[in-house]
Amino acid sequence: xxxxxxxxxxxxxxxxxxxxxxxxxxxxxxxxxxxxxxxxxxxxxxxxxxxxxxxxxxxxxxxxxxxxxxxxxxxxxxxxxxxxxxxxxxxxxxxxxxxxxxxxxxxxxxxxxxxxxxxxxxxxxxxxxxxxxxxxxxxxxxxxxxxxxxxxxxxxxxxxxxxxxxxxxxxxxxxxxxxxxxxxxxxxxxxxxxxxxxxxxxxxxxxxxxxxxxxxxxxxxxxxxxxxxxxxxxxxxxxxxxxxxxxxxxxxxxxxxxxxxxxxxxxxxxxxxxxxxxxxxxxxxxxxxxxxxxxxxxxxxxxxxxxxxxxxxxxxxxxxxxxxxxxxxxxxxxxxxxxxxxxxxxxxxxxxxxxxxxxxxx
Length: 362
Known about the structure:
It contains 17 helices and 11 strands. The two termini are 20 Å apart. The protein has 2 domains: 3-40 and 254-349, 3-Layer(aba) Sandwich (Rossmann fold); 49-246, Glycerate kinase, domain 2 (Alpha-Beta Complex). By secondary structure, the protein is an alpha/beta fold. The mean pLDDT is 94. Helices cover 42% and strands 18% of the residues.
């Protein structure tokens, strides 16, 4: 009998981290019902941040609120209150799925973060003195201009947050502007073509000047200012400090201690690629496990790394849901079922007959 730690991130728009963890556990249990399976879904501040924390902070309370979505239509969003600390997830107010359509040049230009400001305002209205804003998965590239508007404008926002501890939870280190900034790096993922990226860069440059003149903080070059389409810049200008979203969640979920007790760690995400090994949740979980000599299995929607590449990072095995399902469409239409099936299939090879290092060859 083995102890299996299941600690995935979300799988894009198809599965939340909590849903993914449950699917993996269900599938693994079909094949190896005698194993102890510990669920510890993770997040770096992007989609699922509030949901993951809500499963761990048993005294916390969810608050539902209607806010302006990225294209102005009102959307339902939630934030989490744990005493006087509030946890806000920007994807709840301006995430890509809230566009209601595929990202396009039009949505890349029009999408805004006003609803995020409204979520922060709602937390302030209930007496929050510390607000942690999870960044990631946004559909906008407005530099947080909408967020500031949702707080009543720059002067009003500064006044309202003057005595509040504000935390920008993100593992993105990109600045606001330039070739590694919000528009250039993330704009194309949100539907922007080359001309629109140029226009977005110009708009962000103008907005940076407004933020800096109004707050006295020269944020355009700050690490993390480009997170979530530049929402990071607005938060930093308003006095936020940046903290690792993945570390915040890991601490609340007791990840380090859970890894030490595990015989195998299973993590995963939508796409397992080079970015995974450079700051994404699944990579961080894997790094923590390999440091302790615990074998790591990665289950992902797609695996874009060669075996030699992930083995160099200490990962024993990586498997694709798409390959298991036989098609991208089936993998997306039945994401939970296919993930559970893949976990059940892989569990037949555990424990490896020789050593964890030989597992990848099976």
